[in-house]
Write a structure and sequence with these properties.
Elements: E1 2-5, H1 12-15, H2 18-29, E2 39-43, E3 48-52, E4 57-65, E5 68-79, E6 82-91, H3 99-113, E7 122-129, E8 135-146, E9 151-162, E10 168-180, H4 185-189, H5 192-199, E11 202-203
Parallel strand pairs: 1-4
Antiparallel strand pairs: 2-3, 3-11, 4-5, 5-6, 6-10, 7-8, 8-9, 9-10
Length: 204
């Protein structure tokens, strides 16, 4: 497990872009390319269960937002050119009022910082299921980022879980495809192995 601390307020917007956080992880994963070996991972810290295609790496860091210390954790694994990741922001009961601002910043940061192909980005209606089998609506965001000789495709969904104790968990479930030479973002990221990752994420 790696722990990273980021405290300058001006870094906050960047901090929620999964590209930025995964950039740290890429160095840890670049030498690894395991085969698909699906296993259920239950995080008692982040309060979810998920089906990962291999054992994920774990990172933690602390951020400052409106003078509040916010914990962000990332579990991710790289399979060939695909990075499967779950980022979790944990808000304590007395920080719950920050939920809307953090969620908005998280969604807006990607489009503000990445060179998105606008007509290749789309939002689709979807759903997720909690560990106790309740199903809720959610939106899936598909992005294409143009690189000099290839594209990167990304699919993300944001899920908010509020606990009876008043804590809030903000999840960003994502798959990032690197070095894409052909295909459309929706076509590529709707393939079974990626759909499985999204469908088998369950807040506890």
């Amino acid at each position: 497990m790696s722990v990273i601390n980021f405290f300058p307020n001006q870094l906050f917007k960047r901090s929620f872009v999964v590209f930025a956080f995964i950039g740290l992880l890429t160095f840890m994963l670049c030498a690894c390319s395991p085969q698909l070996d699906w296993r259920t991972v239950t995080s008692t810290q982040a309060q979810y269960s998920a089906l990962f295609p291999a054992k994920p790496e774990h990172l933690e860091r602390h951020l400052v937002y409106q003078d509040q210390d916010i914990l962000q954790v990332l579990d991710a694994v790289k399979i060939d050119d695909a990075i499967f990741s779950i980022s979790t922001i944990e808000l304590k009961k007395d920080q719950a009022s920050l939920e809307d601002g953090i969620l908005e910043s998280s969604k807006n940061a990607l489009s503000q910082q990445a060179d998105l192909v606008k007509d290749a980005s789309l939002i689709k209606e979807a759903s997720y299921q909690t560990a106790d089998h309740q199903r809720f609506a959610v939106k899936d965001y598909y992005f294409e980022v143009k690189m000099p000789n290839h594209s990167q495709f990304m699919r993300s969904r944001w899920i908010v879980r509020r606990t009876p104790a008043g804590e809030v968990f903000i999840y960003q479930v994502s798959v990032l495809l690197q070095n894409v030479k052909s295909g459309t973002v929706e076509q590529m990221l709707s393939q079974e192995q990626y759909a499985t990752f999204f469908e088998e994420f369950h807040p506890l």
